[in-house]
Specification:
Length: 162
Amino acid sequence: MPQLPTSAPVTATEDLLRLEHQVCFALNSASRAFGGFYREALRDLELTYPQYLAMLTLWEHRELPVKRIGELLRLDSGTLSPLLKRLEAAGLVQRTRSPQDERSVLVSLTPAGAALRERAEQVPLRIAAATGLDPAELRALHGMLQGLTDRLDTASGATGRE
């Protein structure tokens, strides 16, 4: 039986079902803690965390089809479309039909959306400071989590989308 990272060794099958031994619970707890901190950090930008993630993809790529944004963020269109509509209503993005394929909708930054990037640069710095991890530790954690995600996607046959 594999040893779990804990101060006491796992000695019985029932111990495997203890909440404190569940990696999924630790990840969920960390995710909720991140979510709470991001809510505060994003308040001045008037963005929700999912909106922030969409803006990150657009700050990086300037323009993307909705489908590609969904792939990058691991969101289905039922979740992504309302989010993008709210960003458009806020004047941060614009959605247009692709001239090459009218079935495809392109999302691009407006000048206001592009300008918001400068104000958003403080967010990752605040998050990094709040973790107490140095840059090398943050990179290592990121790599471990990405590797875990990839292995779980492979094991479940997932396509990476919810």
